[in-house]
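Sanity check

After download, print the first record. It should look like this:
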Amino acid sequence: MHIEVTGKGPPLVLLHGWAMHGGIFAPLVAQLTTQRTLYVVDLPGHGHSRSSAVSLAPENCARAILGAVPAAPWCGWSLGGLIALQAALLAPQQVSKLAMLCATPKFVLAEDWPQGMSRDVFTGFEAGLRSDWRATIDRFIALEAFGSDQMREELKLLRDAVLERGEPSTRVLQEGLQVLESSDLREHLPALQVPSVWIAGRRDRLVNPQAMQASAQLSPNARYVQIEHAGHAPFLTHAQAVAEVLVGFLQKNEESLVYECNIV
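Expected structure tokens:
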């Protein structure tokens, strides 16, 4: 598995989202390299890890990454957040803090989870992968950028980056959608042993900020932060704001505190 190491200071692990690769974090990495040694992971089947045979199933993937990085806080975006959460549940002695970036323990709508995304969206993407995977990724990217006050800039950044490290495997793209559709780690949140911060984009159309707020409320020692004008990828359009939240969170040792914060 490809893991890029850059920067100086205490370690921080970064995990990207579906169909992307670690290079998507470039604006955030630029903000953090003077303060953190960053372990930027290309998830299995993505980017420079295209040949990795590791499954994207959160537990399998988390264990593989845990064996390849030092003890550190983890930050996961979207699909990467599911894997980071799983790692924190499996190995709190190695994942000292958890940052969930536009990510939740359950992505799909349910009777007891009205903040989730309609399952029809996932089945539509799954069908699209079989007929035209490029167009399907482009539709997904459009949803990621939609709502941001810098939508055009974000859309261009995502489109420019998605194939920068080569074409992702169609099999892995399908597996990733299935993981997003089927995973549900909500019942484990009350047992989460490490401090967590849940960073939402208020205009996110893929991950409802209310779902992230509800997740923070289920977690002990958790903080909820909302980037006011951001969509699903706030680290692209509001990198400084996200970096400030992360650095502040990583530097503090707070006891059992859940509170809200809005960043304009």
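If your output differs, re-run the checksum step. Summary of this record's structure: The first strand starts at residue 3 and ends at 7.
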